[in-house]
Amino acid sequence: MRAQHIRAIVYGVGEMGRITTRLLVDKGVRIVGAIGNRNNIGRDLGEVAGLGRSLGVPIDNDAERVLSSSAADVVLMSFCSDMETMFPAACRCIENGMNVVSITDESFYPWGLFSRRASELDRLARRHGVTVTGTGIQDLIWLNLVSTLSAVCHKIDSVSGEASANIDEFGPAAATSAGLGLTPAAFETRFAETRQPPTPFGVALQGLVADLGLTLSGSRQRVVPILAARDTPSVALQRVIREGEVIGTSHVDEVETVEGPLFSGAFHVKVYEPGETDHCRWQIEGFPNATVVIPAMPGKIGTCTIAVNRVPDVINAAPGFVPAQELPRIKYRPYPLHAYVRAGISCEATG
């Protein structure tokens, strides 16, 4: 018997879920279920994802019904950004015997800031013989790329990164949460009074520290407003952000290590002006110095392609919550994904 298909459930049918669906189908994955919670309930996943054809998979908002009635090897999760929201959903997947690949920001390296939830998921996954991991663009750009670059150094004093994202692509809720359109004074009041959740960069920096074999000794975070230099229309807010109002935020994270090297990251989330693109830059100071710049980073599509390329690694991995740095090096998959699943691991088989 030879495995012919990996069977997957798409958990979250927003834009990231729709992109993921198209990529999975193109890589020979058989999608057997779809879980959503908004306007597309009852519609076929293939039509909603823009495939131009039906997949015979209706979108359902009853997660337990989908998970208990669809035999799947893996669930690709893209409906939330925090571990507390992800936790009960991941538990349901695990209890139904399914591996989990999540692009939840806080799941990328949860062993520092979210160790309680990570430990609970790890124990549950080990008990059911499945694997959970967090991945996304940070798997490549904020972890593997920097870790590999560091090999040129004999000594490292500091590692600093900078990345950007277009807040207009994340919708009105994200734009409002980021303080877009506020005056500087109103922004200062809101963020002084509100405890900020860990940023994706902060979570990734902790994963990078662990990957390099260093020991975290402390961390801090601050949020800095980016002010509009001119009147700029915002698609997410559906209005013009006036000159001097907040057009974005810079989330700055700093991480200290017992061994000495300092790590920092600035994640700029703003309304893009013409000509601006997602980008990333890393600078390692030490002996010798090293720099890498990605002038145009495909953040949204890159997050989905990396999650899809991680599917065989997660199916092949030992049970438990396995962070990205403990998986094989992420790479391009030219063949259908089932070609990368080790013999003897259960996927749909045909004679």
Quickly count the domains: 2
Shape: globular
Largest sheet features: 7 strands, parallel
Number of strands: 17
Using the coordinates shown, work out and report the CATH topology of the largest domain. Rossmann fold
Low-pLDDT sequence parts? none
Distance between the termini: 5 Å
**Fraction of residues in helix:** 25-40%
Rg from Cα: 21 Å
Total count of helical runs of at least 4 residues = 10
User: CATH superfamily membership of the largest domain, which one?
Assistant: NAD(P)-binding Rossmann-like Domain
Summarize the helix and strand pattern as letters.
EEHEHEHEHEHEHEHHHEEEEEEEHEE
Give an account of the 3D structure.
By secondary structure, the protein is α/β, with parallel strands linked by helices. The protein has 2 domains: 2-136 and 301-350, NAD(P)-binding Rossmann-like Domain (Rossmann fold, 3-Layer(aba) Sandwich); 154-287, Dihydrodipicolinate Reductase, domain 2, CATH 3.30.360. The chain is built from 10 helices and 17 strands. It has helices at residues 15-26, 45-48, 63-69, 83-95, 115-128, 137-149, 171-177, 184-193, 200-211, 299-316; strands at 2-5, 7-11, 30-35, 59-60, 74-77, 99-102, 131-134, 155-166, 216-227, 232-234, 239-241, 246-257, 262-270, 280-287, 290-294, 320-321, 348-350. Strands 4-3-2-5-6-7-16 form a 7-stranded parallel β-sheet, with helices on both faces. Helix 4 (83-95) runs parallel beside helix 5 (115-128). The longest helix is centred in the last third of the chain and has 18 residues, at 299-316. The mean pLDDT is 93.
